[in-house]
Design goal:
single chain, mainly alpha, 24 helices, 2 strands
């Protein structure tokens, strides 16, 4: 660059402005006069403070929830009209089946059938009461969400005014549900319709009264009385079942006719109405003393179960309940293991059964079910109904299998294949199922439709196999895979296996016991049960698309290794088996 160009560049730059001189600080004299306020101060306690209205809070919550809803109930009904039509058709078929079974049961006019038919309402009342107490022990019965417990229940308001509608709702649901279930079962026994109405309303009233008493105990933060009530109704149900079996076998004579059943129905109805009114009022009076921790704990449990229910994953719902139970239990005493290999797993299952003997007691009580069903004359339907009961009784015996099937990382830690692991985990429940079959076989032989023959003896073992295989299916089935392509339905898109989650376990019982219902040979049911067990034991039904791709990749790697070894290259590889 030349000197002239440098000179021009220097001349083109503007001169930088110089900083102006800082002004000299001026000292100001502060006046010594005191500050005077513009107005007079006033005490806030002299003014009226507004009181919080519980009704306005409820209206605020309702507006908040409804304002964020994007669809109305009528929109959902119009979108799911196909499903509703299917439900109506299925209900029509169920009602037709109930009427046919009722006519078949009413055709049995022997003294044993009449007495068993008179004892069945007592059994259903005790069963409804026991179920109501159990649900109240688990959930509350009054609950609140975590958000409500955070900002609403700590506010200076009357808690009973906020929770009273929830109590009345639970009481109404208990009354309606207890009456509906009781009426549905009693219709199968062949009782007259007015006797069914009396006993159903009485059972619903007892359920509503139990809910109110449990709410009172929840406010007092004690569970002793609730446990006593639950034990009482369990004893009543067991005694009623034993009486039905004794009458059917001819060991006991109880002259119960329709007149006695109707008179007892009026008594139970009066007790139920009195209990419903008294229990609901007692729960309402003590509702203000319910602790926030008790309310929120039940709400958290209910919200978790709702999330699992939306996915129709009932196994996950049970996992949540089991977790809640053992969290309340605290801890257990560890024990040193014994044996090696699969024998160590079997011995561990035996120690778990000793630690929780309640599961064995429940299995023992379920032995009464086939005898009771045969005593009221259900005949070939007994294996299916008793098998369904056995499925839900044996599910707690497969907790280890449930954990292993849902936790693939834990399953890979065992030095055995999936079939060997599942065989070890199902050995103890299988032995218990064989013992259960031996104990119920006399009932099928003496009280069944094929007395004193090989068919009656085989029905007991088929029932046990149906419950055993159904329980394995229930705990080992995979949840719905949302990564798969969705299926378009009237209620929106859903995974292909979502609707079948409701029927797992039940499908095995239906397939295995269907030949007995039709009247075919029990050997067909035995063959179906063996094939289903072998398939479930292998774990092939639990593979999803990702696991199938992994197995395909492993097979390709093994094939490539064999080819490299055959070509003269010594390449040693080890592939961990995946399950």
């Amino acid at each position: 660059m030349s000197a002239n160009s440098k000179r021009r560049r220097r001349q083109s730059k503007p001169n930088r402005p110089q900083n102006p001189p800082l002004p000299e600080p001026v000292e100001e004299e502060l006046s010594s006069s005191e500050w005077e306020p513009a107005g007079d101060f006033a005490d806030v306690e002299d003014y009226e403070v507004a009181q919080t209205d519980e009704r306005q809070l409820r209206l605020l919550m309702r507006d908040w929830r409804r304002g964020r809803a994007t669809r109305s109930l009528w929109d959902m009904v119009t979108d799911s009209y196909v499903a509703l039509f299917s439900v109506v058709m299925i209900l029509a078929m169920v009602v037709s089946g109930i009427m046919s079974i009722q006519q078949s049961s009413a055709g049995c006019g022997t003294e044993a059938c009449t007495t068993s038919r008179g004892l069945l309402p007592w059994l259903m009342t005790a069963a409804v009461a026991t179920t109501t107490v159990s649900l109240c022990r688990i959930f509350g019965p009054v609950t609140a969400s975590a958000a409500e417990g955070f900002w609403l229940l700590d506010a200076p308001i009357r808690r009973s005014r906020v929770l009273n509608r929830r109590l009345w709702t639970v009481v109404a649901l208990a009354f309606t549900g207890g009456a509906a279930v009781s009426a549905l079962v009693l219709l199968l026994s062949g009782l007259a319709w007015y006797a069914v109405v009396l006993w159903a309303l009485g059972a619903g009233g007892l359920a509503a009264g139990i809910v109110g008493l449990c709410a009172q105990e929840q406010a007092a933060d004690r569970m002793v009385f609730v446990r006593v009530v639950q034990s009482f109704w369990i004893i009543v149900a067991t005694a009623t079942l034993l009486a039905m079996i004794a009458v059917s076998a001819g060991w006991l004579n109880l002259p119960l006719d329709l007149a006695h059943t109707e008179f007892a129905g009026w008594i139970v109805l009066g007790i139920g109405i009195t209990g419903a009114v008294g229990g609901a009022l007692a729960g309402r009076i003590h509702l203000g003393g319910v602790g926030r921790a008790r309310l929120v704990s039940g709400g958290d449990l209910l919200s978790g179960l709702q999330g699992a229910a939306f996915a129709l994953d009932f196994a996950l719902m049970r996992d949540i309940l089991v977790e809640r139970r053992w969290m309340e239990h605290g801890n257990v005493t560890p024990e040193r293991g014994r044996a090696v290999g699969t024998a160590a797993i079997v011995s561990r299952e035996i120690r778990k059964l000793r630690r929780s003997p309640g599961r064995l007691v429940t299995l023992g009580l379920s032995i009464i079910v086939p005898y009771a069903l045969l005593s009221i004359g259900l005949g070939n339907l007994t294996p299916a109904l008793a098998g369904l009961v056995l499925v839900f009784v044996m599910i707690p015996l497969f907790d280890s299998m449930r954990v292993v099937n849902r936790t693939k990382g834990l399953a890979r830690c065992f030095p055995m294949s999936a079939s060997e692991l599942n065989t070890a985990l199902t050995t103890l429940p299988g032995a218990l199922a064989i013992g259960w079959a031996l104990l119920v076989t006399p009932g099928f032989v003496l009280l069944g439709s094929h007395p004193m023959g090989p068919i009656g003896a085989a029905q007991g073992f088929v029932t046990a196999m149906a419950g055993y295989v159904g329980a394995i299916r229930w705990v080992s089935a995979r949840p719905a895979d949302y990564s798969m392509p969705m299926v378009a339905t009237g209620m929106g898109a859903m995974p292909p296996g979502l609707m079948f989650n409701m029927f797992r376990g039940i499908d095995m019982v239906a397939i295995i016991t269907l030949p007995l219902i039709i009247g075919w040979s029990p050997l067909i049911s035995v063959a179906i049960a063996v094939i289903a067990y072998l398939v479930l034991r292998s774990g092939q039904l639990n593979l999803n698309a990702e696991e199938l791709m992994e197995r395909n990749l492993e097979a390709r790697q093994e094939l490539a290794a064999l080819r490299s070894q055959s070509s003269g290259k010594q390449k040693i590889t080890y592939t961990r088996t995946r399950r």
